[in-house]
Amino acid sequence: MHQTCVAVPPNLYLTVLDYFHYWSNPSVAKLDEVAQATLIASVKVLDPHPPAFYELVIIFHVATEMRYHLEFNDTSQQGANSSSGHDDQIKETCRTLSHYMMYLLLMRPSALPIALSDTELKVLIHDLKMFFEDTKDVREACQTLKDYSIQSQDPPNLRRIVPVAQKIVRNF
Q1: Which of 170, 22, 13 is nearest to 94 (CA)?
Q2: Which candidate, 71, 52, 34, places its Cα nearest to that of 164?
Q3: Most exposed among 82, 89, 141, 161, judged by the fewest C-beta atoms under 10 Å?
Q4: What helix, strand, coil percent values describe the chain, rounded to 5?
Q5: Three-state DSSP string of 56-114
């Protein structure tokens, strides 16, 4: 069995713990609630039904990959050294967590709080494969996603996932 171990940067670990403490303390005014409400409102404008948990995993994975491959690599190719080593470490950790969530969704769905049949998962994977069949690499796939305009004939899975991922990338 393949095992992967990733060291979480201490600063990110503390940030995550602080975030959990922040949300568990009912007396603290939650500034992030505005950001969450904005995100939820934008998702509902695109689709009146909130996305299922498995859709959120995919949406945030797609958005993470788009940010990583389009922005992170663009700055490094331009020679701009605007991010610190710590920022790079956080980006890599976020990407690793995103990959792990997709691994759980695809390989160990029983480990997640989802109600997704094998048939639904196969349809979703098929829709995504068909969408990306002409792309050569991940960066090209991310660029395609960034520039894509949803069409009425697109599969429902794509109509729910792509616009939300695009909006997250634009807003964050």
Answers
A1: 13
A2: 52
A3: 82
A4: 70, 0, 30
A5: HHHHHHHHHHHHHHHHHHHHHHCCCCCCCHHHHHHHHHHHHHHHHHHHHHHHCHHHCCC
Count how many residues are written for the chain.
172
Query: What's the CA angle centered on 148, arms 147 and 153, to 5 degrees?
Result: 170
Q: Tell the residue number behind the tokens 């069949």, with chain if given.
A: 133
CA angle 146, 147, 153 (to 5 degrees): 105
Calpha distance 150→160 (Å, rounded): 10
Q: pLDDT, tens digit, for every residue of 85-133?
A: 767 777 888 888 888 888 888 888 888 877 777 888 888 889 988 888 8
CA distance linking residue 110 with residue 169, whole number of Å:
29
Which two structure tokens, joined as six digits, stand for 132? 């990306």
Determine the Cα–Cα distance for residues 42 and 151; give it in Å rounded to an integer: 19
Q: CB-hemisphere CA count at 13 Å for 24? A: 6
Residue 58: closest CA among 123, 152, 136: 123
User: Would you state the torsion angle of the CA atoms of residues 87, 91, 93, 99, taken in this order, to the nearest 10 degrees?
Assistant: 180
What is the residue type of 25? N
